[in-house]
Amino acid sequence: MADQTPREINPFLRQLLELGPPIAFFVIYLRLRDQVFTWGGVEYSGFIVATIIFVPIMLIAMGILWKLTGQLSRLQIFTAVIVVFFGALTWWFNDERFFKMKTTLVYGFFATLLGIGLVQGKSYLAYVLSDALPLKPEAWMTLTRRLMLAFIALAVANEIIWRTMSTDLWVKIETFGFPIALFAFLWFQFASLGAFEDEGGQGDKS
């Protein structure tokens, strides 16, 4: 039982393990994007090779995170499964579109999950973050609705970007644009809903 208890690790190390693989993919892609590799008589673009390299890097990082903390969230596991599945399709069919589509599926899944909770009158987001953020139930419902819409917007944006713009631009937006936009959105929502003020207020009362 003790082995299943989540263990705290250095926040910088956690960020490195969670954000390192996407950044590694970005760097590898930049180095390989203009090259063509031939394996078994089949030519693969730099993007395909970068994708193939990225998958084990991500799995190794997740394995280290699990080893250090003793825990992986269901969303992390789901994301890993999707990345492996679409990475395999990208390699097997030698078609970069599969890997680009996985971002749409991930954001779409998150939106669907939150939407199912809302239909049931629940905030699944509160189940995950309520211990860390002191929000009232109605605020959690508001945040959940807004985040569901944000995930839908990101899914739609990804479809538009990969279908109409260059691979270079998609890689940059996928690596930096979407995460920064999501972080900025969440920070603004937490501030507007009083999460930071409530936390400080609770500290003053204690």
UniProtKB/TrEMBL annotation:
<keyword id="KW-0812">Transmembrane</keyword>
<dbReference type="GO" id="GO:0005886">
    <property type="term" value="C:plasma membrane"/>
</dbReference>
<dbReference type="Pfam" id="PF04279">
    <property type="entry name" value="IspA"/>
</dbReference>
<keyword id="KW-1133">Transmembrane helix</keyword>
<dbReference type="InterPro" id="IPR006008">
    <property type="entry name" value="YciB"/>
</dbReference>
<feature type="transmembrane region" description="Helical">
    <location>
        <begin position="105"/>
        <end position="127"/>
    </location>
</feature>
<keyword id="KW-0472">Membrane</keyword>
<feature type="transmembrane region" description="Helical">
    <location>
        <begin position="72"/>
        <end position="93"/>
    </location>
</feature>
<feature type="transmembrane region" description="Helical">
    <location>
        <begin position="176"/>
        <end position="196"/>
    </location>
</feature>
<comment type="function">
    <text>Plays a role in cell envelope biogenesis, maintenance of cell envelope integrity and membrane homeostasis.</text>
</comment>
<feature type="transmembrane region" description="Helical">
    <location>
        <begin position="44"/>
        <end position="66"/>
    </location>
</feature>
<protein>
    <recommendedName>
        <fullName>Inner membrane-spanning protein YciB</fullName>
    </recommendedName>
</protein>
<keyword id="KW-1003">Cell membrane</keyword>
<comment type="similarity">
    <text>Belongs to the YciB family.</text>
</comment>
<feature type="transmembrane region" description="Helical">
    <location>
        <begin position="12"/>
        <end position="32"/>
    </location>
</feature>
<keyword id="KW-0997">Cell inner membrane</keyword>
<feature type="transmembrane region" description="Helical">
    <location>
        <begin position="147"/>
        <end position="164"/>
    </location>
</feature>
